[in-house]
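Lecture notes, unit on protein representations.

Consider one protein chain, 303 amino acids long.
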Amino acid sequence: MNSSQLPDPTDRPARLTVGVVGAGRVGATLAAALRQAGHRPVAASGVSDASVRRAAALLPDVPLVTPAEVLARADLVLLTVPDDALPELVDGLAGTGAIRPGQLLVHTSGRYGTGVLAPALRAGALPLALHPVMTFTGTSVDVQRLAGCSFGITAPEELRLAAEALVIEMGGEPEWIAEEARPLYHAALALGANHLVTLVAQSMELLRTAGVEAPDRMLGPLLGAALDNALRSGDGALTGPVARGDAGTVAAHVSELREHAPQTVAGYLAMARATADRALAHGLLKPELAEDLLGVLAEGDLR
């Protein structure tokens, strides 16, 4: 397959044989989505028990083979390994001659663009970075969640239409990310999604300690509204004691957390300080109230 044979996104793209190197949650899901679009998964690699079970569930009848054999069988290969393992994997595949000229080589790392695929490009591969902006469970529900999911795309200009076509086929929404912007783009997503999970889990633990039997039911409507408001209004959605400048309430929070969950104090203080800075910058927190509030936060750091 060469650039003149790339799928035309204005037509139904050519059917491709698909391989997965690293049958984790992302790789198995994307291969299953490509199967629904008419492509044909033919091989996957994975050694952990979880990978074997996941492949059996999402990619039935697809054999598990070595990474080199995956590349030998597939026109399009998904490299879905952890970020830190990706450069070494690409170097190894290129060094052993496993990569074929004209082969579409796709990684799903948010951190990297196509630069990490440079050894594969020198071997004649067609490099694409397609990062789905979604969390994955490793089950069939993930395929459904791809509908409307944004994908951060980085690719050579001549492959841009092909990359967009693949994303659209999987039900996603293409979003072009420049090579040099990939680390910042990924940091932004991690800041929002990964830290949100930590905050929610801590909140549920504290509510259980306070005697709430169903913290998930209590938090669901509140957090859903907060997220919706934040997406609609940004900093204008800030509420609560920090944004109001209620220094006494914040001091009480810190005292209670220090007694019942000391491991959460540092995170609370850091987020309170960041919230105060944003509320001040947007005129929500009065400067005369901010002084006492910031004093409480500074005192909390010293204890």
